[in-house]
Amino acid sequence: MSMGGSLDQQWARVRGRLKDEVGETAFRSWLMPLQLQDVRGSEVRMAVPTRFMRDWVLTHYADRIRALWTGENPRVQTVDIIVASMGPANDHLETPAADPTPPEAVRVPQRSTAVPSPEDREDLSAPLDPRFIFENFVVGKPNELAHAAARRVAEATTVTFNPLFLYGGVGLGKTHLMHAIAWHIRRRDPNRRVIYLSAEKFMYQFIRALRFKDTMAFKEQFRSVDVLMIDDVQFISGKDSTQEEFFHTFNALVDNNRQVIVSADKSPSDLEGMEERLRSRLGWGLVADIHPTTYELRLGIIQAKADQMGHLIPQKVQEFLAHKIASNVRELEGALNRIVAHAELVGRPITLESTQEVLHDLLRANDRRVSIDEIQKRVAEHYNVRLADMSSARRARAVARPRQVAMYLAKQLTQRSLPEIGRKFGGRDHTTVMHAVRKVEELCGLDRAFAEDVELLRRMLET
Ligand code: ADP
Ligand code: MG
Q: Quick one: average pLDDT of 102-123?
């Protein structure tokens, strides 16, 4: 459907849509620098400042950009992205400024081989992200069960566990695994009807069917699929009529030996606002949870993504990121994209310093708050003294030294004041804490082994 307006207005709307779809971080890193050049015949040309960016945008966003353009302007059928030096943002109607390297054009065919065209796609199903395939999923302890279950379901020719229920916190790979299952089945057996959609979309479709008094057709559509995947099912908590419909659809499919796969942010039994019979039914098959990431998994993911981007990221920076960005994988990806985009734009290699600079806001948000209790516990364990000795009056060096280390770490790692720290260590005076901090600093300067010990403790507490 054409919205008309000038080319600039169309472009503004395309950009607006893209931003909504990919999120602020990815948009800033990759799509904001795109500049509209012109439309020639059925082809729209856009420019980016570097070759790397062009490749990135092409592999990740070209199909969406084309689809959005066609939506705005039906004349547009193909998208060209060229590498060109950039003028100010509103310069795009002029010929690009003279550039020593001639622009290289890459044609994006209207139909890419990787992504099925809209006609082939189940119209009920939401589009699948081409990056979300098994090959791109890094397996580690926290997600190995979920991954193995997803693989099993994708490869199975008969239904083994029904439903497969995947759950875990945000950004840990639930949607990725579901898309991977769908891709796998669609590729292997294009005749099987696989439908993937968010619970939100399921509800929307249902409400629309109600409004158009078309619920029979709605039921038919869903009940004739081979594999139904509903993402983020917690969304229909408390929405009674949608739950009711989902429950019936679910039962009909399971009874007919069709595979159902559901994801949520909580286990079936913890889904509040969900009817008891639905909750229990959801737990009948295999329930697989994805745990929060570990340092090792994060490092593995960073390495894999860095390889995919074809960008050299120093080992030190990879470790730093794995250490600091512990919240979830989505944020980790956002951080990587940002530092790579930055390095590309300013034309300098990635270093620890540039990383800290580019990500300072993110790093601050991810700073973990360690409690003094935790510090005392860890330090006591490390030096093999009793936890009680952290606050006892004993002055023997064997307990006094670990206590000083704990005070030092409390000062370094928490926001607490000296008097507050003193109180936590058996009501000691703030001058005692100050003395401990100085003493530990002094010893670190004198004794390498001691310094390494303290450093090790600090790192352990920070992860
Ligand atoms: P969820 O649906 O659990 O909120 P997503 O599946 O959307 O999370 O994952 C968020 C992002 O992190 C996606 O870009 C996804 O590709 C990526 N991701 C998550 N887990 C992994 C993993 N184990 N290996 C590679 N990428 C991952
Ligand atoms: Mg998701």
A: 38
Q: How far, CA to CA in Å, does 281 sit from each of 205, 285, 418?
A: 23, 8, 55
Our count of domains for the chain comes to 4
Q: What is the pTM of this model?
A: 0.60
79/217 same-domain check: no
Q: Kindly state whether residues 154 and 282 are assigned to the same domain.
A: yes
Look up the CATH number of the domain holding residue 25: 3.30.300.180
Q: Span 251-277, mean pLDDT?
A: 92
**Whether residue 279 is found in the same domain as residue 312:** no
CA–CA separation, 37 vs 29, rounded Å? Answer: 20
Element (H, E) at 43: strand 43-48
Give 340 or 55, the one with higher predicted confidence: 340
Note whether 194 and 182 are within 8 A (CB). Answer: yes
CB within 5 A of ion ligand 2: which residues? Answer: 174-175
- CA-derived radius of gyration, the chain: 28
Where is the domain boundary, 313, 341, 367? 367
Tell how far the Cα of 324 is from the centroid of ligand 2, in angstroms: 23
Kindly tell me if the per-residue pLDDT of 241 is higher than 90: no
Whole-number Å distance between alpha carbons of 314 and 302: 11
Alpha-carbon span 258 to 204, nearest angstrom? 23
Q: Are 50 and 38 in contact, with CB atoms under 8 Å apart?
A: no
Q: What is the distance in A from the centroid of ligand 1 to the CA of 116?
A: 22
Please tell me the distance between residue 28's alpha carbon and the centre of ligand 1 in angstroms. Answer: 20
Best of 60, 134, 167, 176 to mutate for ligand 1, by most ligand atoms within 8 A of CB?
A: 176
* Structural domain harbouring 332: 295-367
Per DSSP, what are the bridge partners of residue 290? Answer: 168
Do 283 and 302 sit in the same domain of this protein?
no
Q: What digits encode the pLDDT tens for the residues 98-108? A: 333 333 343 43
Summarised one tens digit per residue, pLDDT across range 282-321 is: 999 999 999 989 999 999 999 999 998 888 899 999 999 9
341 CB within 6 A, ligand 1: no
85 has a pLDDT exceeding 70: no
* Range with the poorest average pLDDT among 390-394, 403-407, 457-461: 457-461
Residue among 233, 289, 330 whose CB has most ligand 1 atoms within 8 A, to mutate? 330
327 Cβ inside 6 Å of ligand 1: no
